[in-house]
Amino acid sequence: MEDDKPLSESERSSKEHYSHLEEKRKSAYDKIQGVRIVKVTKDNIVKDLIELYKDPSISNSRLLMEIAGQEDAVGNGVLREAYSLFWDNLLANNTMGETEFTIPMAPHFTFEDYVSIGRIITHQFVQCGAFPVRISQASITQALLGDVSPETLISSFLKLLPPREREIIEKGLSDSTAFSQDEIMEILEDYNINTLPTTANLASLITQIGRNEFAQKPYLCLLRIRRGMGPMWDGVSEKDIASIYNLCQPTTQRIIDQIYMVHKDPKDAQIMRWLQRYLKICSDEALVNFLRFCTATDVMRPECCIKVSTEFMPPAAIRPKSRTCFGIIVLPRNYTSFTQLRKNMDFYLRNPNLWDLSD
Predict the structure, then answer these.
(1) CA distances from 142 to 2, 20, 94, 124, 205 (A)
(2) Which residue numbers delimit the HECT domain (predicted)?
(3) Digit-coded pLDDT (tens) for 89-112
């Protein structure tokens, strides 16, 4: 669990702005009346949820979600998992990006579909406290405010790129001695930039690309998404929106700060120390999988913690388990080394079909 350590000015500001959104979220949650039971299928979840949210009254109800084939699972973990599956499928099949993604613009989507997507964004946030931060911050800012700063456009563009290309552009923006014109031009050509990039014009070229990709191309789609997101977002600022992305995107330190264990003995302390070591060497993808495994969402929730417990498991069944409704991960007490924990966690976390989840 996070220690009482001094916050930087930017961290303090983000927490203050996020608190403002939390107040709005809780107020909206308190206005929800009634419960609706909804059943969806994994293979058709995008269509299922978009059709469901074409009924505007759905946002006035708390959902009890059932996923076909997982009828024994109940609780908030199932609801979070359904939303996570929705974004997985929507973004993987209809957008481009690496850690942030552009707005889906497939020809089979209607304007009413985008209104539904807006309702899903808000209803997920209200019920689960989870905002889909894989959607580009620049597009969300454009949708809510009607404009977006050059700094946010550049940041979201960088998050479209794979790590190596992101590094090339970042160096080009910050260090004239590391400016690789040929490599930068190769990246920008895919965005119809024919101007030769230089240290003097690179930021403006990327701002131009960002405005086109995040604001102008999806402009009509964003208008419908904003309509669907509803009045809860009235009056938010760019700093409020930034606070979501600053605090809710998973990072190594944020996850380590959220995990805690009540140690019963030295073996518990050893398992906890090995888990922290493991998280420090995880790739970004593995961190997201760990968070999803524990909580059924790949979005950090700043007000929540992940509890670690241990239990003895039969040697042939050593594996991590979780109770996603409560944010609990259960680790084998009979891990004998850090290497065993690392290999075991890697094996199970990389394949969601093997996950042992319960509510």
Answers:
(1) 33, 20, 20, 20, 19
(2) 263-347
(3) 999 888 888 889 999 888 899 999
- Please report the beta strands in the chain, taking only residues with DSSP state E, as ranges in sequence order: 35-40, 62-67, 259-260, 306-311, 321-323, 328-332, 357-358
What Å distances lie between residue 237 and 149, 156, 214, CA to CA? 12, 17, 18
- Token pair, residue 67, equals 């996923």
Amino acid at 267: K
Predicted confidence (pLDDT) at residue 359 exceeds the cutoff of 50: no
Q: How much is the CA Rg of the chain, to the nearest whole Å?
A: 21
- List of domains in the chain: 9-145+216-247 (3.90.1750.10), 252-354 (3.30.2410.10)
Sign of CA dihedral 132, 253, 175, 187: negative
Q: Which residue type does 232 have?
A: M
Cα–Cα dist 120/132, whole Å: 10
Q: Write the single-letter amino acid at 204.
A: S
Residue 133: closest CA among 11, 238, 48, 250: 250
Q: What token pair was written down for 351?
A: 């394949």
Eight-class DSSP state of 64 = E
3-class SS of residue 111: helix
CB-facing half-sphere around the CA of 338: CA atoms within 13 A: 12
Q: How far apart are CA 122 and CA 143, in angstroms?
A: 13
Element (H, E) at 155: helix 150-158
Single pTM value for the model: 0.90
pLDDT in tens, 192-241: 998 999 999 999 999 999 999 999 999 999 999 999 999 999 999 999 99
